[in-house]
């Protein structure tokens, strides 16, 4: 099999930084590349520019080992690497559902110019199906004559908050390749992970691209399914938490991603289902995934319904009411506020005239930068002083552990909306709170 390949990771955002650090910890020589000199400088000095449990320790270890370096130079990347991972972002375009591929195109173009000798370029970014075929042409057109460059696809399934574990011990590896050589290179680049017994699915480029969006669409659909049942529960007096528990004991359904509440957000699920819808329409198979529009719609309605519950508890009007919003991040153990349901709700309450204080253990700096009009705090008890309604929007452990008696002593009214079914309703009601939750009587 020859010596271990030398790896570059192009794009050191969330996905790329995690991948680069983990690969170095697994024993590869890795070069992280980014066009943002500030990001590169921070990573090179041992600072992870985002919140991810366990990652700072691994970065220190990787830097100490001498196996991980960072650069802004694509020339250096081309000279250094045998296998190049493309990990740049593919955000939603402004004013459209389509994915913005300018960063992917730029990364492949810049890298291709500097490739020497045989090299494998591996796409990891989430892209519309068909992108890899187009990038293959771009690569061959741009790489110097005689440089043997091939493209492969290796989708990434890591979850924020569990990124290290998901990278070091993934459920599966998916390799989209067009040659035995590319497959052999990828197997060499993941040898320690494969040695643990991780299943490897080797397939073609379009299938590999599709696996990612198909997986995220399924997960989004599962969440919206139980949230649709919550809407039905609300109309019938049934309890969606009991319903979800009963469904979860059916092995064919399972309990994971069946948690009802405020719904999904983040940098992946919402944008991926929209980009998928858009791409399917371009391909003439829009009808096949038309249900994803409804999945998105159900998800958006949960946000509106949460605002309605707060308004009801506040006595029918929001103007001038003091609201304590627990949570800003799109989920716990993250400082990511991209498409965060929590901040969407907080901003709607604020726009309706409520006096909103947003509490979050990690996401306040990001939230403040994006929405300076809101008031922020990191301590829930201090923030809740004099509050008319408390609303739990992100289920951080700190919020689950709040003592309803202690918080009850500082608020003006003991009223709480539990947007994530994270609190013990009996305990809160016993402590004198008017407790409301989506999909529960
Ligand atoms: C997701 C996918 O899980 C991952 O495989 C992919 O690579 C990237 O997108 P991530 O965005 O980190 O990962 O978050 P995830 O843990 O999947 O949660 C997504 C959203 O769904 C969160 O807002 C969460 O609060 C919500 N959610 C999740 C629910 O509302 N109910 C659930 O049962 C599960």
TrEMBL record:
The active site is at residue 268. It catalyses: UDP-alpha-D-glucose + 2 NAD(+) + H2O = UDP-alpha-D-glucuronate + 2 NADH + 3 H(+). Belongs to the UDP-glucose/GDP-mannose dehydrogenase family. This is UDP-glucose 6-dehydrogenase. The keyword Nucleotide-binding does not apply. The lineage of its organism: Bacteria, Bacillati, Actinomycetota, Actinomycetes, Kitasatosporales. It holds the Pfam family UDPG_MGDP_dh. InterPro entries: 6-PGluconate_DH-like_C_sf (IPR008927), NAD(P)-bd_dom_sf (IPR036291), UDP-Glc/GDP-Man (IPR017476), UDP-Glc/GDP-Man_DH_C (IPR014027), UDP-Glc/GDP-Man_DH_C_sf (IPR036220), UDP-Glc/GDP-Man_DH_dimer (IPR014026), UDP-Glc/GDP-Man_DH_N (IPR001732), UDPglc_DH_bac (IPR028357). Substrate binds at residues 157-160, 212, 257-261, 265, 331. It is an enzyme of class 1 (oxidoreductase). The keyword Disulfide bond does not apply. It comes from the Bacteria. GO terms for biological process: polysaccharide biosynthetic process; UDP-glucuronate biosynthetic process. NAD(+) binds at residues 34, 39, 90, 126, 160, 271, 338. Residues 324-425 form the UDP-glucose/GDP-mannose dehydrogenase C-terminal domain. Its EC number is 1.1.1.22. Coiled coil: none annotated. GO terms for molecular function: NAD binding; UDP-glucose 6-dehydrogenase activity. Pathway: Nucleotide-sugar biosynthesis; UDP-alpha-D-glucuronate biosynthesis; UDP-alpha-D-glucuronate from UDP-alpha-D-glucose: step 1/1. It comes from Actinacidiphila alni. Keywords: NAD, Oxidoreductase.
